[in-house]
Specification:
alpha/beta; Aspartate Aminotransferase, domain 2; four-stranded antiparallel β-sheet; 390 residues; 2 domains; binds pyridoxal-5'-phosphate
Amino acid sequence: MSSKKEFETGAIRNQMPRSGYSEHTSAMYLTSSFVFDDAEDMRASFAEEKEKNIYSRFSNPNNTEFVDKVVAMEGAESGYAFASGMAAIFSTLGALLESGDHVLSARSVFGSTHALFTKYFPKWNIETSYFDIKEVDRIEALIRPETKIIFAETPTNPGLEILDLEFLGAFAKKHGILLVIDNCFATPYLQQPIAFGADLVVHSATKLMDGQGRVLGGITVGRAELIREIYLFSRNTGPSLSPFNAWILSKSLETLAVRVDKHCENAMDLARYLEKHEQVNWVKYPFLKSHPQYEIAVKQMKKGGNIVAFELKGGIEEGRNFLNRIKMCTLSANLGDTRTIVTHPASSTHSKLSAEERAGVGISDGLIRVSVGLENISDIVEDLSQALNI
Ligand SMILES: *Cc1c(COP(=O)(O)O)cnc(C)c1O
């Protein structure tokens, strides 16, 4: 199905075979199971002597279409789709890790991923050590004989730090450790970690992949023999993506490139506007020259993404007041939506951390994160500007 095509073409033309109705857009296969012609067909299907859908927890044509598109976009060999990004991350790590294994993770990872490492994996005797992006030279010292996986996100949420994928890929290879990258913030349109040596790439498809705030989804793609393990684990444990959501996500990918281009253009314009604002201490956006890892960002990303972080003058109180003055943009826990979303991590997502822990992951009291949407940039700027100019 997915012969080599340009990114935008593959996103549209990598399509499942048409049914007997000659539909133009792919059909939706809302069926829990599939039928066999006879006993031999059933035997051969279960024996995996032929590729055939058996049960939608294992595979479904809509899931396969979505997976095949992302596999082509990421330059991967194989993949499996999940009900959410966290289902993808848990199942990927759960399938590959054994009791006694050790994980090396970037300190700044998605909150629920962090909870897996700190609260749940210790139950199965799996320990995690953390490396700081500013001291990657220290990570060599953190390796143990039982280190199985290096896990990282780039850009990070919400600090927008950039990890050097070329360095991590070479490092993991040198030490024979698997490298798993959460590529959610960049999407495969902006960054393809496998080209830098990642073994597996995980995504929350809920964010820019859907891009319209409608469904949850997740996906893992990468080396075929690893995906096989993840598939076998998942077909038994049951975190599969629903075919309905797979259909939505596959349609969403058709417009990923044009949407993400516009998201990035709006985000860059907003970042430039905020950089000059006197109520703003600093602005962080991967493609601003002032970003501490700008050189790495332009080396590994096509554009800077849709998230802009900035620090308001003032503390927690000023952050809350700023949110209360926002009129058009929305206060919401999602990101990567058509709608611009504004959050204040210190008083919401990261309020359970102490001030020191927040500082450790780059979250100051005045930090505001904007998931820049697809509204006209003049309306986005006007809303943030009226909330800043008190
Ligand atoms: C949202 C997110 C996740 C989790 O995805 P869900 O679809 O919400 O389960 C994982 N990693 C990153 C970077 C995210 O932004």
